[in-house]
Design a protein that fits this description.
Helix content is 35%, strand content 28%. By secondary structure, the protein is an alpha+beta fold.
Length: 228
């Protein structure tokens, strides 16, 4: 693939292959994703880019956080739905969408188990058993994971019209949605005073919990058949 450089490192009898994305490629991708693009085209493009990068690189190499923001942007933009979407070139917020000519700004973040190092997790093309006990552990990690990311965002300054989109990367195959929605509401509540609206992406849906400081629930699906 032309977007990658592969480096071989020899240590004794062992040889490790490290794949990194060139800085010139990252700059080109970021510039491309920062241009206004139709929602469907943006979603297809970020998925194309993500599929070319090994998991260890996508989560392990520095400077790729904008790609994860772009993935969140693509799902939010499709769910709402919007006409156009782009990353914001400046430090914050992370992305903008356009609906009927009106621009809405978003900060993106991800909630996950504390200390998880996904860059160390090997690519595995073969499905493996995922016991119900593991689903429950992930579900029970949601409150603390939300508390951490919300607390970090509350320490930063944003314009009053910026919304927050939190991707909860703790899936449970839909087993605990009814039990989970009150938890998502409670643990995103502190963000309602900082952000225009507060959204959560979880279990294939985009949920809105807060708007203008008040609880206002809504739900949209963002998963499509081609995602599987």
């Amino acid at each position: 693939m032309g977007d990658r450089v592969e480096i071989t490192v020899t240590a004794g009898a062992k040889i490790a292959s490290v794949v990194r994305v060139q800085k010139t490629t990252l700059r080109a991708w970021k510039a491309e994703l920062s241009r206004w693009t139709t929602t469907d085209e943006f979603r297809v493009r970020i998925d194309q880019i993500a599929q070319t990068i090994p998991r260890s690189t996508f989560f392990g190499q520095g400077g790729l956080a904008f790609l994860r923001d772009a993935w969140v942007a693509s799902r939010v933009a499709c769910a709402l739905p919007s006409d156009m979407v782009r990353l914001v070139p400046s430090e914050r917020p992370d992305f903008e969408i356009q609906i009927d000519g009106q621009i809405q700004q978003f900060e993106a973040t991800e909630a996950d188990i504390e200390g998880r190092r996904r860059g160390d997790e090997a690519d595995d093309p073969h499905p493996r058993p995922d016991p119900v006990e593991a689903w429950r552990r992930r579900f029970e990690a949601i409150p603390a994971s939300l508390d951490r990311v919300v607390a970090k965002k509350l320490k930063k300054d944003y314009l009053a019209e910026v919304s927050l989109a939190i991707y909860v990367n703790l899936g449970c195959y839909g087993a605990y949605v009814e039990e989970g929605l009150p938890i998502l509401r409670e643990h995103t509540a502190p963000a309602r005073t900082k952000f225009k609206r507060v959204f959560v992406l979880w279990e294939g849906c985009l949920y809105k919990f807060w708007e203008d400081g008040e609880y206002r629930f809504d739900k949209w699906q963002y998963v499509r058949p081609e995602d599987f």
